[in-house]
Every structure is written in C-alpha cells, then in structure tokens.
Specification:
- This is CBPM Carboxypeptidase.
- Belongs to the peptidase M14 family.
- InterPro entries: CarboxyPept-like_regulatory, CARBOXYPEPT_ZN_1, CPM_N, Peptidase_M14, Peptidase_M14_domain.
- By secondary structure, the chain is α/β, with parallel strands linked by helices.
- It has twelve helices and 15 strands.
- The chain folds into two domains: about 290 residues, Aminopeptidase (3-Layer(aba) Sandwich); about 80 residues, Immunoglobulin-like (Sandwich).
- The chain is about 30% helix and about 20% strand.
- The longest helix is centred in the last third of the chain and has 17 residues.
- The radius of gyration is 23 Å and the shape is globular.
- It starts with a helix and ends with a helix.
Length: about 425
C-alpha cells in the first residue's frame, strides 16, 4: 500500500496539465495532511481552480509570530518553467521535512504558500509551445494579468480579471511578508518599482522605493544562489544585467504589475524572477532548471526572517489592529499597519533603526533597535509595543488605503512646493527693487 501511495504522488520532470497538477497536489496533501493545506483561492475565466498548497507547522491558519511567504508562477500562461519548478519545490520540502534540519526549521518557522499556476487557462491554451510568444500569455479574456492590478502611479483602466481579483483578495486576507512571482523570457531578478514618476527618480531611469536597499539584497540573494543568473549575461547581446538583477523601471516601464501592488497595498515585498530565456522550453530541460534554481528558492525563502517583528497592544495587553508601524526615514505611501492580531513585520537589513508605532489620535512610541542578521535563526528580531493611552477599539477609521494612484498625488504635492521659474524671476526682481 505504501508503494502504491508513493507512486500516486511521484513527480516526473514533464509538463503537468490541469488535471495532473490537481491530482498531484491532492496526493501531496493526502500523504502529508498535518504538514500541508490545499485550497483554491478562486477560479479562472474558464472555471479552473487556482490551487494553493500551504506548508507549515500550522498550515491551516496564521500563527502569531510566524511570517507568511508565497511563490506564484505561470501568471503568463506560456511561461512555464516556474510552474514545474514549484511542483518540484513542494516535493523537495515535504520529503526533506524531518530529515534535513534546515528545511525542517524553515517549515516550522514559516507558513509557505505555493501557487503553481495563476493562469491555468493560458497554459492549456498554449497548444504549440514557443520560446518567444503565444496567445497563451493572456487569460481567456485576452488580458495580461501582470498589467491588471491597480497602479500606484497612474490610473489603470484595465478591467480586473477573475484571476487578479482572487489574488488581490488572497493578499488582503493573509499577512504576507515576502513573495516572488516566477516568469520566463529572460534570466534576471527584477525588483520594484516597475512604474514610476519624478518623485521616485524616474527622470534618472530608476524608480526607487523607500526600501530599495532591501530589494537589492533580495534580488541579489536569489541571483547569487542561482547556478548562472549572477553572471548577468542576458539572453542576447543587447541585454546584460550586472550581478543578475535589475530595477523593474530601469528595464522597462510596466503599469499594473503584481509586484508593485504587493508592496504598496499588500505590505509584502515581492520580486519578479525571470528563470529561462525560452518561455516554454522542451520538457527534457526541466530537470536542469530545477537544479539551477533549487538552492536559490530555499535561500530566498529564508529572507522572510529579515528585520523586525512584534505586536502592538494596549495597557491591558489587547492587540491593536491597524496601528501604523514603520521604520523612521522610510515611510510608505500607504502606511504599513498591524493585522487583526496587532502584529507587524518589517523587512530591514542589519543595522540600527528607530521604529515608530502610532495609533492615530494618540502619542507615538519610538524605539531604537539594533537588528542582527537573524535569517539563519529563522526568526526576525522581536520588538513589541505597549501603548498605555491607546485602546484596542481603535480599528478601521484610518485603516483603508484607496486604490488610487498614490504616487500621482505625491508628485502633485511635491510640484506644488517647488517654486517655478516664473516665481523665481519675480522674487529676484522684487529683491532688486527692495535693495
């Protein structure tokens, strides 16, 4: 019986279509019920389930202090390597648990969400695999899912697709801290922002987020642990990426991308991983792609334990949801807030920071922290805040962040305080007359 059961969840290096993928995930969950949780976060245009397998010591629900991590692949249906790599990652994690001490500690201290395909319809529609482009890139409504999210810089007129809506709701309902989405067509780790304006430095060709140092570190973590990405050699002579990384905007401007949405509205640091020059390579190359990415996938997951985490409570020890907690000097355009359990997670590189906990209407609390590199210990630095004047009844009054181009408003405000050339000339004339 054990042999038959093992055969049922055995994973070959080949492409798995919708029924096979579903069968495999259900087999894994049946074989490891205490370690995994399988659920669908929604359905595609054609009604296919958007499956997510969760791994962890408490796979069915969030546990205080344990950060949430996710991998998403195949949002472009014809970019297929990530889809299969994530299935092999699942296989590696469940079979290594209890045997490999590093993997065991990673799973015990992290809740890991894996979505092998965000665009199952596009994958099934790709009848003739191609290295460059097929119509399967889009969902069944002909929409590019990586141009379909609300944008922080300009109005995105694209109608939200079922797959996009499912992911947006998923992000809203979980406390994701770190994420990556897997693509094909290049070999590089790309990081936010994908879009930009003068406020974020787009005039210089680089759209810088408040946490640019962390994003560079995250991208380098993946590229340096990949078999060849760190070399920076592009897929043709025109395209090179020093150290195998790039700022998204520096590469090409993208409106409505998923990684910017995660960072601005989901409080989740996400990078985009381009894993193969050929979008849909022959199946006999999949084993090499797995070997090339295996270490990088694990090392990147460990980074969810960077920085600082903790709870914000009132004088009675009750958690305060929606309290703003941010590091001084790096405010987010949509302030990062505590979840329903009063928890916060801030990804920060080792160093000294001032952490500001604020409940609107009450006095802020500042704490200086020295953050070590705790990724090897699988736990960020813990720093709680007790706000004696605040009440746990202060909830959602200031909690919502509108799905509008927030950086557009910031650009207008910035321009408003800058004197125009006309104003400068007028002031100079007035000064001369006065003298």
């Amino acid at each position: 019986i054990l042999c038959l059961f093992s055969a049922a969840v055995a994973l070959d290096f080949k492409y798995h279509h919708a029924e096979e993928l579903e069968q495999y995930l259900k087999g894994i969950h049946a074989a490891y019920p205490s370690l995994t949780h399988l659920h669908s976060i929604g359905r595609s245009v054609e009604g296919r389930d958007l499956w997510v397998l969760v791994l962890g010591r408490f796979p069915t629900h969030h546990k205080i202090g344990i950060p949430e991590f996710k991998y998403v692949a195949n949002m472009h249906g014809d970019e297929t390597v990530g889809r299969e790599i994530l299935l092999h990652l699942i296989d590696f994690l469940v079979t290594s648990y209890g045997r490999d001490p590093v993997i065991t500690r990673l799973i015990n201290n992290t809740r890991i969400h894996i979505m092998p395909t965000m665009n199952p319809d596009g994958f099934e529609a790709t009848k003739v695999p191609d290295c460059y482009y097929t119509r399967g890139r889009y969902n069944q409504n002909g929409k590019d899912l990586n141009r379909n999210f609300p944008d922080a810089f300009e109005n995105n007129s694209a109608s939200i697709q079922p797959e996009t809506r499912a992911v947006m709701d998923w992000i809203k309902n979980e406390t994701f801290v770190l994420s990556a989405n897997l693509h094909g067509g290049a070999l590089v780790a790309s990081y936010t922002f994908d879009n930009g304006n003068p406020v974020t430095g787009s005039l210089e060709g680089y759209s810088r987020s408040p946490d640019d140092d962390v994003f560079v570190h995250l991208a380098k973590t993946y590229s340096s642990n990949h078999a060849s990405m760190y070399k920076g050699v592009g897929c043709d002579n025109r395209q090179t990426f020093p150290e195998g990384i790039t700022n998204g905007y520096s590469w090409y401007q993208l409106e409505g991308g998923m990684q910017d949405y995660n960072y601005v509205w989901g409080q989740c640091f996400e990078i985009t991983l381009e894993l193969s020059c050929c979008k849909y390579p022959p199946a006999d190359q999949l084993e090499k792609f797995w070997r090339d990415n295996k270490v990088a996938l694990i090392e990147y997951m460990k980074q969810v334990h960077l920085g600082v985490k903790g709870q914000v409570t009132d004088k009675n020890g009750n958690p305060i949801p929606n309290a703003i907690v941010e590091a001084k000097g790096r405010p987010h355009v949509c302030p990062y807030r505590t979840n329903e359990q009063g928890e916060y997670f801030l990804l920060l590189l080792p160093g000294t920071y001032v952490i500001n906990a604020t409940v609107p209407g009450f006095k802020s609390m500042l704490k200086t922290v020295e953050i070590p590199d705790n990724t090897g210990n699988f736990s960020a630095l813990k720093q709680d805040f007790s706000l004696p004047e605040a009440s746990d009844q202060i909830r959602s009054r200031f909690a919502s962040c509108p799905k509008t181009p927030l950086y557009q408003e910031l650009a207008r405000a910035s321009a408003a305080v800058k004197p125009t050339l006309h104003t400068l000339v007028l002031m100079t004339i007035m000064l001369v007359i006065f003298k």
